[in-house]
Amino acid sequence: MTLPTSIRILNAALFVLFFSGCGLLDGDGADEFTGLSTEEQFYRRALEQLESRNYAGAISTYQALESRFPFGRFAAQAQIEIVYAYFSNGDEEAARAAADRFIRLHPENDNIDYAYYMKGLASFNDRSGILSRFIPVDYTKRDPGLAQESFNDFAQLLALYPDSAYAADARARMVYLRNNLAAYEIHVANYYLDRRAYIAALRRGQYVVENFQGTPAVADGVSIMVESYLRLGLNDLADTSLALLKENYPNHASIDNDGDFRVRTEITDPSLLYTVSFGLLGDNRGNPPLAPTRRPGTSGSQQIINSQRNQTSSGSSFLSIITFGLLN
Predict the structure, then answer these.
(1) What is the DSSP string of 263-310?
(2) How far apart are CA 143 and CA 161, in angstroms?
(3) Average pLDDT in the 113-118 region?
(4) What distance in Å separates the CA atoms of residue 48 and residue 296, rounded to the nearest whole number?
């Protein structure tokens, strides 16, 4: 029995469509790697795409090369170059993962220092979020996690390969990151001061002074220590910190022309209108009397001692003692 001509044509068309979809025929639906058969051809294609800034295409070709020739002579080179391709394509997380993988698989490779450098650079340049791409952002106020991670990666590079060609740039970036980390601590300390958490602010200021010597934020850290001590009534410690501030940073903004310490009188206190309008309406500043107009005559520790002495001298009745102070 002979099939009608129309049915034979229909079957032929379905046959062509099926195998075109499977990538077995040449044409618009053909495999993008058609014509590439050797490992060197794949590598040359990927390199051309990388040099022409077709980073997405280069990533795809490097992945295809590794899947087809996992133990070839270009495999290790493809694994290190895909780190740069990911980084240039704006995928910092993938770049870090690829660098980690290269370090784990090829610890003795000649390009191992470059892997450490790119890992640190990926964290350094991470600008996650849509807003950060269009609006200027103060990165000293962001979560310092990535900055600390980048600093550690660069430090590891310098420790393991001090003579690396990337050591000088890594060292300069570490200085920048360290300054940013110190500035972040100052932002946190000011936040605590604004909310009258003086002990927390004091600890942040001390942390900056002890751990970030040489950064511009040290002066602000000493200033925060002075103010925190003043507000806690620890005037002897405040005087010591103020003398340190005057001796090392005489032009700091917290010292007036007469050499006296400027105690801040404003705190952040956003109104409901300011909050719901995202800062377009209302105000977020207050002017409460946070600091005393003059220091107390005795230090905070002396006041505690005097208070204890007064309690001891006043004595307690027998009824007050046996009722734990409930009755006199």
Answers:
(1) ----EE---HHHHHTTTSSS--EE----S-SS--SS-HHHHHHHHHHH
(2) 29
(3) 96
(4) 75
